[in-house]
Amino acid sequence: MRLRNIPGADAAIAESSYCIKEPETQKGHWQEVFPSSQPLHIEIGMGKGRFIMDLATAHPEVNYIGIERYSSVLLRALQKMEVTPLPNLKFICMDAADIAEVFAPEEVARIYLNFSDPWPKDRHAKRRLTSRQFFARYDLVLAKDGRVEFKTDNQDLFTFSLEEIPEAGWRLDASTRDLHHDENLNKGNIMTEYEEKFSSLGNPICKLIASR
Ligand code: SAM
User: Fold this and answer.
1) Beta strand pairing call for 171-176 and 108-114
2) Alpha carbons 47 and 186: distance in angstroms, whole number
3) Is 117 a catalytic residue?
4) Predicted model pTM
5) Residue 1 — pLDDT band, cuts 50, 70, 90?
6) Which of 101, 128, 129 to mutate to test the pocket of ligand 1 (most atoms within 8 A of CB)?
């Protein structure tokens, strides 16, 4: 994602009631930030937030938290929330490497990863959100029957992710390298910003679902 430093982004996030500040103080009590107590699903690396906003609209029976590292990107989602507020959606501006400091064991029912940064150099593999190091973090916060859903158009990152799942001690429940032509996995699919862009260029979209 091309990043511009947007003046005022940090201040807008600090003032917004949609963005949870000092998220570690909420650990174990995330239901309190929502009007209804219901399963909690999170998206890591939500970008401008289109996917999680569409998901939260379609599923009012689920609470959602979108996590994004850069305030200049998260700002776009906050601006959309000002126009169309969703009671079952909040945002956190943080690095997902710290996820276990923010969520208690089993507090999260599902994790979405969409078009995660590929970090193509081998020496950066542990920064990939589907690396065994990140699966170990997800293990600390995900409910026993919880799952991780990952989409990408990057074939190398997808192959790496398929290989990391057993290495991390997880199980591959389903996968496809052509999501939009997979009748089962594409059912109810909600497109992300990157998914729309890359599929319109003719790139097939890969998806996997993993659990332990
Ligand atoms: N998910 C969106 C989509 O599919 O349109 C955006 C994809 S963009 C390529 C990846 C996003 O993940 C970027 O906005 C980046 O800042 C964010 N990101 C990458 N690593 C992250 C991390 N460790 N913690 C939080 N956000 C991260």
Assistant:
1) unpaired
2) 22
3) yes
4) 0.96
5) very low
6) 129
